[in-house]
Amino acid sequence: MSNIVDPLVERIGARIRAERDRRRWTLSELADASGVSRAMIHRIERGESNPTAVVLGKLSAAFRLSVATLLDPEAGAEKVRRADTAPQWLDPETGYVRRQLSGPGFPAEMAEIRLPAGARVPYPAAAFAFHRQIIWVVDGHLTFHEGDAVHELEAGDTVELGDPAPCVFVNSSDRECRYAVVLVRGEAP
Question: What is the chain's Cα-based Rg?
Fold first, then answer.
């Protein structure tokens, strides 16, 4: 997993800065829209801080983009993505690893998630506002909170997300959970 560190963190920062510039937002405006502090956004944009999954969720919601779009902004021409070269990102807080399976030019996004034992990753409702998603548990157990609903999912189970609601991905087991997220893009910002 040598491609999890610095170059991706720098690309994430550059992508966030480019999205902010495209909208002509100040740091303060993005901070207000996302609920992420100006100082944190500044550190992320400069490649000095690897954002957590929670922070990425808040920033993607403010931009009305998917997390995948922030993580993998460069449209590649390659049809085959090799496992050892696909963009991967490691959440520094939980150890959650996200690997992009589809490229940004494909009409649907697909990512593989490895959620460590005991990890809990919340996302705000706004992160789901412009997308339709399905979650497919490949291995392990996932407790998925979608608003007030709680779904206990085992290997092979799927859940289609409904209207935007705060969501929490929880692995309360003693082993890693691996799941896929398939997202269909909605309205463009």
Answer: 16
Smallest CA-to-CA distance from 178 within 103, 93, 107, 119 is with 119
Asked if residue 70 lies in contact with residue 60, where contact means CB atoms within 8 angstroms, the answer is: yes
Q: Which residue has the tokens 């901070």?
A: 31
Model confidence over 177-189: pLDDT tens digits? 999 999 886 654 4
- Residue 66, both tokens: 């998917």
CB neighbour class for 36 (10 Å; exposed up to 12, middle 13-18, buried from 19): buried
C-alpha span between 64 and 51 (Å, rounded): 17
CA 96/CA 52 separation, integer angstroms: 9
Q: Which residue, chain included where needed, has tokens 């548990």?
A: 137
SS (H, E, C) 23-62: HCCCHHHHHHHHCCCHHHHHHHHCCCCCCCHHHHHHHHHH
Q: Coil, helix or strand for 120?
A: strand
Q: What is the pTM of this model?
A: 0.74
